[in-house]
Amino acid sequence: MAAATGPARWHRNLSAKIAAIPMITTALVVFIGGTAWTVLYSFTSSKLLPKEKFVGFAQYERLWSSSKWLISIENLAIYGAFSLIFSLLIGFVLAALLDQKIRFEDTFRTLLLYPFALSFIVTGLAWQWILNPDFGIQQVVRNLGWENFSFDPLYNPDIVIYGILIAGLWQGTGLIMCLMLAGLRGIDEDIWKAAKIDGIPMWKTYIFIIIPMMRGIFITAIVLIASGIIKVYDLVVAQTGGGPGIASEVPAKYVYDAMFLSQNLGQGFAASTMMLLTVIVIVVPWAYLEFGGKRRG
């Protein structure tokens, strides 16, 4: 009986498994194969075309001695930290407000989610105009009488990344709000009633009861936000083009410039590999704690 269990289990849903073979093959060849190819050629002196002339860690040494790359890493860290914190915070607060069964909820939800339907290029261009000191927010406020008011983040190298952050939050917060709202709507009403009967303040109910129950929603939101942070490119190109100077460079743009403008594939592959390594360093420990601990339990 036990011997027959293995084959019987293998033949279960056999047609679905056969249908999945092309997808699995594509994933192995395109994603895993492409990743391995990129890492391999990051150790070569490839320029316009790939070539198998290995130079060891020369591309990585050049990469980490580049001020443009170091600035892009710093910008990504700043953008990533603030984007993660404020996206979760603003998204949850907006969801909590909409969860109070306010009037015109559908209208507000649509307005808040609408920016997510736009491409990053459109969002970047729109906020480039809004933050333009000649006819944007700065000029509007000055026309109202505050002639010394200054707000031109896209033209100030010290704070340009925060101007890009504003556009990113405007576009992405609506999606996080919808995820949080779906999580809040899934909370049993009896929990709210019990907390109210026990005299627990609403803010404590959210922090100590509701948020821990929404752990899965928060993990999903963090994954979505993190994926957007790593590949941020369109906003930078549309708003600043990496300027002023190289003040708003990000890793994804560095990879593009190295591979297609400088025609240095080896350098672009090295930068891509470092981005991949960053993702692995973040994802693997989280996956181990999230799934490995449950299996051991």
What does this 3D model show about the protein?
The protein is mostly helical. It has two domains: 1-41, no CATH class; 58-296, MetI-like (MetI-like fold, Orthogonal Bundle). Helix content is 73%, strand content 0%. It contains 14 helices and no strands. The chain has helices spanning 2-11, 14-41, 58-64, 67-98, 105-113, 120-130, 137-143, 160-185, 189-197, 202-213, 215-230, 234-239, 251-261, 265-296. Helix 3 (58-64) crosses helix 14. The longest helix has 32 residues, at 67-98. The radius of gyration is 24 Å and the shape is flat.
- How many helices? The count is 14
**How would you characterize the largest beta sheet?**
none
The CATH class designation of the largest domain is Mainly Alpha
Q: Termini, distance in Å?
A: 29 Å
Q: What is the annotated CATH architecture of the largest domain? A: Orthogonal Bundle
Low-confidence stretches: none
- The dominant shape is flat
Mean pLDDT: 88
Give helix and strand order, one letter per element, not per position.
Answer: HHHHHHHHHHHHHH
Subcellular location: Cell membrane
Pfam families: BPD_transp_1 (PF00528)
Transmembrane segments: 18-43, 76-98, 110-130, 159-184, 205-230, 269-289
Protein name: Lactose transport system permease protein LacF
What is the topological layout?
Blueprint: H1 2-11, H2 14-41, H3 58-64, H4 67-98, H5 105-113, H6 120-130, H7 137-143, H8 160-185, H9 189-197, H10 202-213, H11 215-230, H12 234-239, H13 251-261, H14 265-296
Task: Please tag this protein with its features.
flat, 0% strand, MetI-like fold, membrane
